[in-house]
Design a protein that fits this description.
single chain; 7-stranded mixed sheet; 4-stranded antiparallel sheet
Length: 407
């Protein structure tokens, strides 16, 4: 692929850009929580400072209702999830994934769940819906709760209902690049009224108001408005990406290296007002993303040697990016060697299965995760940003073909 233009960089995900008018309150705009609850079809939502802090609060709330202390996590998911479980003082068991998917392997899940299992955390990745029926059944059988990690899937639906509303608790992220954003933010939902009350109580105790942190987040949100474009991203994303790739550190290039300390604080009213304004544009943005993804998935589906992860039956994803799985890890590595630093929004989702991160040593147990490890080594993602031109997309597809054919 030709060298990227020196001024242009595409984001790895199709985030929702902010507008200057979002920063100024207007009459007639619904409150942020009210608008989100209406969007998700739930009685109420709880806004926290990040999806990770929301997970901590969810874990802590479930701990208060049970003496169980084990959480079951997918072997392939964001490293922040086990960090949240560790912050809540929980023991972790890892479940392998299905071959060629990120869904939990039900045979493995059934084998590791028992009377000590507090909760299972299935993950909806890349805006796609994970297979829930078997997970819900196993959880019911052993008396465990289900926390749906829908951090990347705000707006995705299964059987006409938003994901995140099938388990006891659902969690969404409002981080930069997740679609709707407060730069950092998270949303908790629960169907049971008593559990909603408990989540609010834990949230007040665990996440006090910190003026300095809220000022910092507001400045970062302002920076998102200024720099979330192909010019600004060259400075705020592309330079760092290429620096870490040059140093041979793909974990930092992807952004998988996190501080073990998880910030916990209240989200201020001004950021919520900005989020409420952006939320009004989210449905139309998601519809455009799906239409654009459908065309591109169809084109990629013609390439031998790869498969594109698609919606499961009765589900509708949000498509912030497209996940491509190669038949071999060598072909995936060849494609990334050309595309990752080319400025066209091609990257890895997570570099490793959870057992592959040195940072998580001592937090996650040693476990056999052959499917999760294989998936991590063979998967890359292609941005579904509207800034990706058709010519660029077709050149990406050509490079995928060349990478497969190289043997």
């Amino acid at each position: 692929m030709s060298r990227p233009l020196p001024w242009r960089e595409l984001p790895p995900t199709a985030g929702l850009p902010l507008q200057w008018r979002d920063f100024f309150a207007r009459t007639g705009r619904p409150a942020f929580e009210e608008g989100l609850a209406r969007f998700l079809g739930v009685p109420s939502v709880q806004v926290e400072c990040s999806g990770t802090s929301g997970l901590v609060i969810a874990f802590e709330a479930l701990k208060r209702r049970s003496s169980r202390r084990t959480v079951v996590l997918p072997g392939y998911t964001c490293p922040l999830v086990p960090l949240a479980a560790a912050r809540a003082g929980l023991q972790i068991k890892l479940c392998d994934t299905r071959p060629d998917r990120f869904d939990l392997d039900l045979n493995h899940l059934a084998a590791i769940c028992d009377s000590e299992t507090l909760c299972i955390v299935p993950t909806h990745l890349g805006g796609l819906v994970t297979a829930l029926p078997g997970v819900l059944e196993i959880a019911r059988r052993v008396g465990a709760a289900v926390i749906e990690d829908a951090a990347q899937a705000l707006g995705a639906r299964w059987k006409g209902r938003p994901v995140g509303t099938f388990g006891e608790i659902g969690i969404y992220s409002l981080a930069c690049g997740k679609g709707l954003t407060l730069y950092e933010g998270g949303v908790l939902v629960a169907q049971d009224a008593s559990l909603r009350t408990l989540l609010n109580e834990v949230g007040r105790q665990e996440a006090p108001f910190h003026r300095w942190m809220e000022c910092k987040r507001f400045v970062e949100l302002l920076g998102y408005r200024l720099f979330y474009n192909p010019l600004g991203l060259r400075l705020t994303y592309g330079l760092s990406l290429r620096r870490w790739l040059k140093r041979g550190d793909p974990v930092r290039a992807v952004g998988d290296r996190f501080d073990n300390e998880i910030p916990m604080h209240t989200v201020g009213a001004w950021r919520k007002t900005i989020g409420a304004a952006a939320l009004m544009r989210l449905p139309s943005a998601l519809a455009e993303q799906e239409e654009r993804a459908r065309r591109r998935v169809k084109a990629l589906g013609k390439i031998a040697g790869i498969r594109v992860l698609d919606d499961l039956p009765e589900s509708t994803g949000t498509w912030p990016f497209i996940m491509v799985l190669f038949d071999s890890d060598r072909a995936c590595s060849r494609a990334l060697s050309v595309l990752w630093s080319a400025g066209v929004g091609v990257t890895r989702l997570f570099v490793h299965a959870l057992t592959g991160y040195p940072q998580l040593k001592g937090i996650v147990p040693n476990a056999s995760l052959p499917h999760a490890e294989s998936f991590a080594s063979r998967c890359l993602t292609i941005t579904n940003s509207p800034w990706l031109t058709e010519d660029e997309f077709h050149r990406i597809a050509e490079i995928l073909v060349e990478s497969v054919q190289a043997g």
